[in-house]
Amino acid sequence: MTVPEQSYIPETPQEEAAAILKTERGALVQKLVDNDAPAFLEDHTRLLDDYFRRCYEKSTVGLSLDIAKNPYAIVALGGYGRSEQCVYSDVDLLFLFEKRVPPSAGALVEEMLYPLWDLGIEVGHATRSIRDCLTLGRQDLESLTAMLDARFICGMSTLFVQLTTQLRTRLIQPRTDAIISSLVESNHQRHRRFGDSAYLLEPNFKEGQGGLRDYHTLLWIAKIRAGIKTRADLAFYDYFSHDDYTDLIKSLDFIWNIRNRYHLMMRRKADQLYLEQQVRLAEEMHIPELGGRLPVERLLGMLHSHMEYIKQLFSLFLYEMEQRKRFQRKNSKLKTATIKGLAFNQGMLSFTAPEKILRNPLLLIDIFSESAAQKAPLSNEAKRLISDFSDLMDDRFRSDPQVVQRFDRILTRSSRTFEVLNQMLSTGFLVHFIPEFRDIVNRIQFDQYHLYPVGRHLLYTVKIMRGFGARPPFPPDPLAVEIYGSIRRKKPLIWAALLHDIGKGSPARGHSKRGALMAKRILEEKGFRPVDIKTVVFLVENHLLLADTATRRDINDERTAIVLAQTVRNMETLKMLYLLTVADSMATGPKAWNEWTASLFRDLFFKARNILESGEMNFGRAVRLVEKKRQAILELFGTLNTSEPLETLLNFMSPRYIVYAPVEKIPEHLELYASLGENPFVWRIDRDETAHTRIVTLCAKDRPGLISRIAGVFTLNSIDILDVQVFTWRNNIALDVFTVKPPPDPIFEDERWERTRRELEEALAGRLDLRAVLGAALTEKKNSAAPFSFAAAERPTRIVVDNETTSFYTIVEIITYNVPGLLFWITDTLLALGLDIWVAKIATKVDQVVDVFYVRDFDGQRVDTQPEVDALKAAIRTVLTDPTGGVK
Q1: Minimal CB count within 10 Å: which of 301, 562, 735, 782?
Q2: What is residue 696's three-state secondary structure?
Q3: Bridging pattern class, strands 91-97 and 123-129
Q4: Which H or E element spans position 351?
Q5: Nearest to 735, CA basis, from 698, 686, 682, 695
Q6: How far is it, in rounded angstroms, from Cα 78 to Cα 81?
């Protein structure tokens, strides 16, 4: 017999009010899901207001308080006070009393808030007197801003009026400038902490630059200065024009819509739009693919565009406020424009009249030149006019020598190049001057590697490149600064920085070659000299050459540096390529530029430079180098105490080892060899603080699968491998040199290395089943709430088998998505195929890895027949599809 389900019957008026709220809130959220809630924030706020008013009317505790003796009011604060109540935003409340908080106030809070907590609504509350509020407002900026947003809900309204009046007369008016200065400084600190969300790949749409908090700060300053009550007053009090205010509301509505849908998707409050959630959010918002751009790329492009508008509007608001203060000072001089047709208004550049532009279209570039010279921003009206008159920027305008000369001067000489280029980008001028920019302005490279959209990335690259020549230089990279100072023709280098990714407007592969053709067409149109065009085209086409070679090839192989030197042909081009590589990497983000990649780039640059200086472009240097180093080792270390004669040990060493191993390291390696005895392995761990890496030199008797077992144990201990050099001596001794990132916890680093040593011994003895352990870790990762990869279907794995670069090895290059133990699974597969690994390079790009292996089979032969190549690719693809091979 089944017991019929009984309907819920509220026992108190507060529970009844909560039941109504639950029903109405559920219906409103469903409308949001159905795209039928255009005023969701206000409607959600109203439902909560209704709940508190119902509770207030039927409150038994409120009756016992006797409002005549203990007057109180319920006040909304923060976002709730602004009527910006998102799905899972906190509800911030103030229970306000006149002179003192009675003991029974706690019971009032519980009566009203317990039902909300039962509904899962997060409520932040405070119970204070008016005096308490004023005291806290003096001490804490966050509390003050929350009260600036205060809104009366119910209770004694006169009490709320007293609070707001005293807040203004006793707290705000005497300290207006100091409070605003604190707000501005707090804003700067927040921007430094959360970054420029108008361009970041993982934006924070509340706290980041261009986010909601910028708008809130603007609102608070206007409330402090002018006492405005609502955001509509921003236009009424002439802070913004009607058009500016309309565009602001559009941007805010877009961000709030995304925030609400993100809350629903995450089922909690969330403001950081993490990469692994973005694909799903784009799907939930039904954004279609368009023009080869993935839905997620279009979503981020639109979000960045709206956040950029808020950022620009907020910056102009602060600038105009500062200018007003400056004009009030004695002896303050007004700026005057030096170009006819331009004028300053509140310290910002404007056109004197729209018809001036029609008569003289050169004003469209002149206003940027004046902005650079006078270090002044463009007014919003000027930006709008540039957009309105964009049809004047036709082919004749783009190729006009006067326009090109002015743009070139801004690009290559101005101290404010980045700021002015930014204005050109946001106004659309840059897109009309270089139409090829149109397809890359907000194009997102959805790979967890690039921090910025392509268009913005190019501007940052120019900024960094120009920074190498600034005083003081920024960023302060000594080698780049030195090289930049020695470059005679800087113009083509800076243009290459501006155009190096121009080919990314198409989703098809091969953006470098495509971009080179586009750069040639752009510069020819603008009348550049053939010699400069040739330089820019080469740099654009080869802008990845040095980075890819350094991170994916064995730079200790002399052929690697020789091929690079043969490609660049002369020292000036090598210097330019190095600078473009560094600036591009720095502008890409910390995953592309760090101590490790910097050291690789420098080492390859110096090797190629030495070859160009010596003029030796052939491959006979290695033979002479081996003999030269053998003699040096015998002369320096002939008295070294070893169990075997040094010359005998040198004969054991392969020529490759003698060429690559630094002379000063060889005694350390011999000491490791001498201490090996019957141990399964011995190692030495050295710190390289300049590259923030560890060098693990391991000596063991060679055996099949040694590298894969080491890789597996390192993975178990969260030690990321960056590079592996494998040396096998003729007496069957393996001497392998691993460059790795330090273990995650520096305090317990020694303990982690000791645990790694023990587990490696267990793995080599067959007592630790790495396939089972790593398979379980991978299965757990797959089953976790957060996916371990993204958009895999749109971003397929690539496997390249190269038998052209080197005559001795087959190079296997694998570009795929990172999963736990990936390096182990790949090296284990190579072992199963009967292949020895001689060099391994691992370049990790957050979610992606580029693993490169120099391999030969057990007989010393390359994998160079088509059936062998096909089998190799198939085996790797299989293990990438299902690394565990059946381990569940």
Answers
A1: 782
A2: strand
A3: parallel
A4: strand 348-351
A5: 698
A6: 5
Summarize pLDDT for 383-418 with one digit per residue, the tens: 999 999 999 999 999 999 999 999 999 999 888 899
Element (H, E) at 176: helix 176-194
Per-residue pLDDT tens for 786-837? 444 433 334 457 899 999 888 889 999 998 877 767 889 999 999 999 999 9
Q: Are 722 and 740 within 8 A, CB to CB?
A: yes
Top-confidence residue, 23 or 789:
23
Q: Are 594 and 763 in contact (CB under 8 A)?
A: no
| Residue 580 neighbours by CB under 8 Å, 6+ apart | 461, 465, 493, 496, 497, 500, 539, 543
d(CA 522, CA 433): 10
In three-state form (DSSP H/G/I as H, E/B as E, the rest C), the secondary structure along 566-610 is: HHHCCHHHHHHHHHHHHHHHHHHCCCCCCHHHHHHHHHHHHHHHH
E strands present in 72-194: 72-76, 91-97, 123-129, 151-155
For residue 351, the cross-strand partners are 342
Judged by DSSP in three states, 721 sits in: strand
Cβ–Cβ < 8 Å for 756, 738: no
Tokens coding 458:
């190019």
Distance CA 739, CA 603 (A): 15
SS3 492: helix
| Minimum mean pLDDT range among 300-309, 419-428, 480-489, 612-621 | 612-621
Q: How many residues does the chain have?
A: 888
Instruction: Quote the CA–CA distance of 589 and 584 in Å, as a whole number.
Output: 9
Q: What does the block give as tokens for 16? A: 């009844």
**Rounded Cα distance, 836 and 732, in Å:** 13
Contact between 43 and 28 under an 8 Å Cβ cutoff? The reply is yes
d(CA 59, CA 114): 13
Q: Which two tokens stand for residue 668?
A: 């350390």
Q: Does residue 814 come out as left (phi exceeding 0), alpha (psi in the -120 to 50 range) or beta?
A: beta
CA angle, 110 then 113 then 116, to 5°: 145
> In Å, what is the CA distance from 459 to each residue of 120, 462, 534?
46, 5, 22
Integer Cα distance of 233 and 239 in angstroms: 8
Please say whether the beta carbons of 554 and 423 come within 8 A: no
Q: Is 861 left (phi over 0), alpha (psi -120 to 50) or beta?
A: beta
CA dihedral 491, 496, 499, 501 (to 10 degrees): -160
**Torsion of the alpha carbons at 876, 877, 878 and 882, rounded to the nearest 10:** 100
For residue 481, count other CB atoms closer than 10 A to its CB: 18
Distance of CA 171 to the CA centre of its chain: 40
Contact criterion met (CB below 8 Å) for 74 and 155: yes
For residue 555, name the pLDDT band (cuts at 50, 70, 90).
Answer: confident
**Structure token pair of residue 135:** 């005291």
pTM, rounded to two decimals: 0.77
Three-state DSSP class for residue 342 = strand
pLDDT digits (tens, 9 = 90+) for 249-303: 999 999 999 999 999 999 999 999 987 788 899 999 999 988 777 888 889 888 9
What is the SS3 assignment for 365-426?
HHHHHHHHHHCCCECHHHHHHHHHCHHHCCHHHHHCHHHHHHHHHHHHCCCCHHHHHHHHHH
Alpha-carbon distance 86 to 40, whole Å? 8
* Whole-number Å distance between alpha carbons of 482 and 473: 10
Amino acid 328: pLDDT: 62
pLDDT(448) > 80: no
Rounded to whole angstroms, the Cα distance separating 592 from 612 reads 27
CA–CA separation, 493 and 462 (whole Å) = 9
For residue 738, what are the CA distances in angstroms to 614, 695, 711, 724? Answer: 31, 6, 10, 5
Residue 68, pLDDT score: 80
